[in-house]
Design goal:
The structure is a single chain. The protein is α+β, with helices and mostly antiparallel strands and 782 residues long. It folds into 5 domains: 109 residues, no CATH class; 55 residues, Alpha-Beta Plaits; 84 residues, Sandwich (Immunoglobulin-like), CATH 2.60.40; 349 residues, Aminopeptidase; 80 residues, Immunoglobulin-like. The chain contains 12 helices and 39 strands. The strands form 10 sheets. An 8-stranded mixed beta sheet has the order 15-23-25-24-26-31-27-30, sandwiched between helices. A 5-stranded mixed beta sheet has the order 1-22-18-20-19, covered by helices on one side. Strands 10-11-7-6-14 form a 5-stranded mixed beta sheet, with no helix packed on it. β38 and β39 form a beta hairpin. α9 crosses α12. Keywords: Hydrolase, Metal-binding, Metalloprotease, Protease, Signal, Zinc.
């Protein structure tokens, strides 16, 4: 009887070699009789655990990623470092101090919120040459679960040398500085407010500077899609593996063939498959790795290898092959002791059984130690999914939805599950499709979306990794392609560490160009792959952008940190040099879209994605070199969002923010997450519809503010997001003229100081490329 060991595990696990014990591989007494039935090795993946980790900064974070540490979506910057959830083995846990990292204390909250004190006295700042300039950026007010919060961002030109204090009627808090890669970004704070909404805040500096600003509302009451009469939602009642996801996608097309089509993407995945493997030996110098040449499900799993001590003195090393059975007859000396080394066994196997297997020493070791006899051992691909899960390359498909699928309407592309373990994300994509098709006859807004938007949905862009996550290793992030060399970690004990991070495999801001946040290590969870666009999954997304030139909007759905972000997404840590920042027009448009999307999310259970978690991903999260968003924005002009769903929730009983449940939350939480974030996707479709229907260019006015010193401060205010091109020399403005820019990161438009009478002429170009007629205004300086 052949025993096939299945190692289905839903605990979080990874591969490690320390302390490996392989059944049946200890030194054997001489036994020339062959075993009747070969068995598979017991090679369980060691347990992992998710822990909250303090990391001293971005450089340490990227060094840890290169070393194989796996950081999850719950991420928070502190003034002196980073708090982040990490998926670690015991060995990695013990190695934290080597990076200056440590397990966070039990009392460390999931989201640090300042606790206000009594309001500070508001004195007059000293009027000295040493006083710093304090510039207030965002001042956002929001409520969730009955609790009010202020989120404030402010800069001092003294950088982090200034100690800043936020005050409002009712309280005050210190504002910590936000430092990233040794660069001062700004001061920021999130504080609860146990009272009415303030209308104004003030910020004072220890160096004498001060400033005031009005409070603005973050998110707004909206007629969310789920609130419309008769609107159907909540179509999914449990987690789905990628096969089930695509079966459901196909069924939606069969049920609604008049408004949908299936788009077969040109590149199939590598497949939920692996070579069959075994590892013999007890020390690195005596270990022999053996891989099948055929995939496990195509015959590799049927091959057995035995290392036999013949029990005869002075015998020669020999290999015999009988069908799928490979027997290595080990050489002995005059006393009958085995003398064959690992290197010699490898050479003999490759010479005599090289049509079936490939043998190698352990991770480049010379293999000079004598091997031990081992019983007949079946090679195994160690894959546990049931037979109905295909091992063949997987055909990825998009569901195209709309009445006019001819390129005449603005297009929206939604992809999910680039990262395998993010199991809620394909449900978000599916739910959005289900809502459109279920409500087409009973909801006027849905009918308008179908008439005016061309939608493409790829619900699982990493089906191979997704299947591995479901049936083998729930910590799996990447796809399953093994690029590790035989001299590296290509042996069976590293099988949980293989694969490419698909969201590090694109062409803009790549690790190959010097950007941080991706690894060249084939066992890192941020491994970028052997080259840009090496993976079929990434090639498919680029193909969609190349093929459908009407695509204007994009969302890639991830979990589980509760962020919504865009460009810049990557930076070079030395000097913190980011990929190009979007112009003020696009940055403003992103913020407007974000508020609409997140207001719709809020409708289900009052979830608020905090403003500090919204913006350029390298500004609010970390650097992610080679991400898909930047490829689509910079190469195709597509407004490209990334979404980390499933963030923290305010708990009124404890007065703290609770975790969103991680990558695979318990179903009651997952059920709420996929529904609320699908509402945000629906809002994206409405944004695309408004974009398509906009036929009027922006109108822009010049605002002047006279200063005490006689100068005039000039700003521009467009009626909608637009690039403003202006001249001051009397020439006619064109799109090559100077452009009105943002004052700084996460700030509105710059202030132009005028000290002599000047005539401004300008045009504006909105996000559709519609151009305003030339305007003119003379700023007179007295």
């Amino acid at each position: 009887m052949v025993t096939r060991l299945r190692t289905t595990r839903l605990a979080l696990v990874v591969a490690a070699t320390a302390g490996l014990t392989v059944a049946g591989l200890s030194a054997q007494a001489s036994d020339p009789a062959p075993a009747a039935d070969p068995v598979r090795q017991e090679l369980p993946l060691p347990d992992e655990q998710v822990v909250r980790v303090y990391v001293p900064g971005s450089e340490a974070l990227y060094a840890m990623e290169d070393a194989g540490y796996d950081f999850t979506g719950e991420f928070q910057r502190l003034p002196e470092g980073i708090l982040v959830d990490a998926l670690v083995t015991g060995e990695q846990l013990a190695g934290l101090d080597g990076f200056g990292a440590a397990v966070a204390g039990e009392a460390t909250p999931r989201a640090v919120t300042a606790t206000p004190s009594a309001p500070a006295a508001r004195g007059t700042a000293p009027d000295t040459a040493d006083a710093d300039t304090v510039t207030i950026g965002r001042v956002d007010w929001f409520t969730t679960k009955g609790q009010g919060f202020l989120s404030v961002e402010v800069k001092s030109d003294a950088l982090d040398a200034a100690d800043l204090t936020l005050s409002w009627d009712g309280g005050s808090v210190e504002i910590p500085a936000y430092i990233d890669s040794d660069e001062y970004m700004y001061h920021r704070v999130l504080t609860r407010v146990d009272g009415p909404r303030p209308d104004e805040i003030s910020v004072t500096s220890s160096l004498g500077g001060s400033s005031t600003a009005p409070v603005t509302d973050w998110l707004h009451e909206t007629s969310a899609d789920i609130d419309r009469p008769g609107y159907e939602y909540g179509f999914i009642d449990g987690y789905l593996n990628p096969t089930e996801v695509y079966e459901r996608l196909e069924q939606l097309h069969e049920d609604h063939p008049d408004v949908t089509e299936i788009v077969e993407l040109p590149n199939e995945t590598n497949g939920y498959r692996r070579l069959a493997q075994a590892l013999f030996g007890t020390t690195n110098g005596s270990r022999v790795g053996v891989d099948s040449l055929a995939w496990g499900h195509e015959g590799g799993n049927d091959i057995s290898v035995e290392l036999r001590n013949s029990g005869v003195a002075s015998s020669a090393l020999d290999v015999t092959v009988d069908g799928d059975a490979v027997i290595v007859h080990l050489a002995t000396d005059a006393a009958g002791a085995v003398t064959s080394t690992a290197a010699q066994v490898v050479a003999a196997l490759n010479a005599e059984a090289g049509t079936q297997v490939l043998a190698y020493t352990f991770r480049g070791n010379a293999g000079a130690d004598v091997v031990a006899a081992a019983p007949p051992t079946l090679l195994s691909d160690n894959l546990a999914a049931p037979p109905e899960i295909s091992r063949d390359p997987f055909p990825i498909r998009a569901l195209r939805i709309g009445n006019h699928r001819d390129g005449s309407r603005p297009g929206v592309l939604i992809i999910a599950q680039d990262h395998a373990r993010e199991r809620v994300t394909p449900l978000v994509a599916l739910e959005a499709a289900e809502r459109l098709l279920a409500n087409r006859d009973n909801d006027p807004t849905t009918r308008r979306i179908l008439e005016n938007v061309d939608i493409l949905i790829v619900p699982s862009n990493n089906p191979d990794g997704g299947h591995y996550n479901f049936f083998d290793r729930s910590g799996q992030r990447r796809n399953m392609t093994n690029y590790c060399p035989l001299t590296g970690q290509a042996d069976v004990t590293a099988r949980g560490n293989w694969g490419v991070d698909l969201n590090r495999n694109y062409r803009v801001g790549s690790a190959l160009d010097g950007y941080d946040g991706a690894s060249f290590s084939c066992t890192s969870d941020t491994y970028m792959g052997p080259d840009k666009l090496s993976e079929p999954e990434a090639q498919n997304i680029v193909w969609l952008a190349d093929t459908y030139d009407n695509l204007k909007f994009f969302m890639t759905v991830h979990s589980s940190g509760g962020q919504l972000f865009w460009q810049p997404g990557a930076y070079i840590a030395d000097g913190r040099i980011t990929t190009p920042r979007p112009p003020l027009r696009d940055e403003t448009y992103y913020w407007e879209m974000a508020e609409e999307i997140l207001s719709n999310v809020k409708g289900l259970r009052d979830t608020v994605v905090q403003p500090g978690n919204v913006g350029g991903s390298s500004d609010v999260l970390y650097s992610s070199a080679g991400n898909v968003r930047e490829d689509l924005y910079f190469n195709y002009g597509i407004y490209a969002f990334g979404w980390e769903i499933g963030g923290v929730q305010w708990n009124p009983e404890t007065g703290e923010f609770d975790s969103g449940g991680g990558f695979i939350p318990e179903w009651p939480e997952a059920d709420l997450q996929y529904q609320e974030y699908a509402s945000g996707v629906i809002e994206m479709f409405e944004i695309a519809m408004a974009y398509g229907q906009d036929q009027r260019p922006a109108t822009t006015r010049l605002i002047q503010e006279r200063q005490a010193d006689g100068t005039v401060h000039v700003t521009f205010e467009p009626s909608e997001p637009a690039s403003i091109h202006y001249t001051t020399d009397g020439s006619t403005p064109t799109t090559d003229s100077p452009v009105y820019e943002a004052a700084n990161v996460r700030e509105p438009g710059e202030v132009i100081e005028v000290d002599a009478t000047t005539t401004f002429r300008w045009i504006s170009v909105d996000v559709k490329g519609q151009t305003e007629r030339t305007k003119r205004f003379t700023v007179r300086v007295r």
